[in-house]
Amino acid sequence: MIFKTFWQSKSKSKDKLAEIKDFSDKFNYKTNIHMRFIDFDMMGHVNNSIYFTYLEIARTKYWEEIIKWDWKKTGIVIAHAELDYILPIVMNDKIAIHVKTSRIGTTSFDLEYQIVKIKGTEEIICSKGKTVCIAVDYATGKPTAIPEEEKQKMLGFEQLTPNP
């Protein structure tokens, strides 16, 4: 009975797809992803674990092309990764990933992603995700402050203000 009362009092949010479409309007970076035959399972869908490989490819391109991260000085580890699967990706789909830095702290920052199918000029949202990234000092293997130059590039590109 308590569960039922709690459940009924919960406010209803707007349509999930409408929420996702709002999410998509806030990205400044997009890269195309080339799919390989090995990415597909027996059902002809991209295997769920491969999505995280796609996110890795997209964030690496983002860091190289936009942020110009200096890998010789400071590393990055992923502390948390999450993904919401919305629509399957199948063979012959053309896909791209939108990436953005959504939060910047002292030693960590968040990246958000959106994987889309490209149909002509239209983009159809397949999934959205997030990773929490930690700057790491190679010598100690411990978290370190995000290098100022990279931090300023993220802030400028995304038009963000830093958060602790």
Secondary-structure blueprint:
Elements: H1 2-9, H2 16-24, E1 29-33, H3 50-67, E2 74-85, E3 95-104, E4 108-119, E5 122-137, H4 148-158
Antiparallel strand pairs: 1-3, 2-5, 3-4, 4-5
Structure report:
This protein is an alpha+beta fold. 28% of the residues lie in helices and 34% in strands. It contains 4 helices and 5 strands; from the N terminus they run ααβαββββα. The protein has helices at 2-9, 16-24, 50-67, 148-158; strands at residues 29-33, 74-85, 95-104, 108-119, 122-137. Strands 1-3-4-5-2 form a 5-stranded antiparallel sheet, sandwiched between helices. A hairpin with a 2-residue loop joins strand 4 (108-119) and strand 5. It starts with a helix and ends in a 6-residue tail after the last helix.
Number of helices: 4
Work out the number of β strands: 5
| Helix amount | 25-40%
Distance between the termini: 41 Å
The major sheet is characterized as:
5 strands, antiparallel
Helix and strand sequence: HHEHEEEEH
Radius of gyration, taken over Cα atoms and rounded to an integer in Å: 18 Å
How much of the residues is beta strand, in percent? 25-35%
Oligomer type = single chain
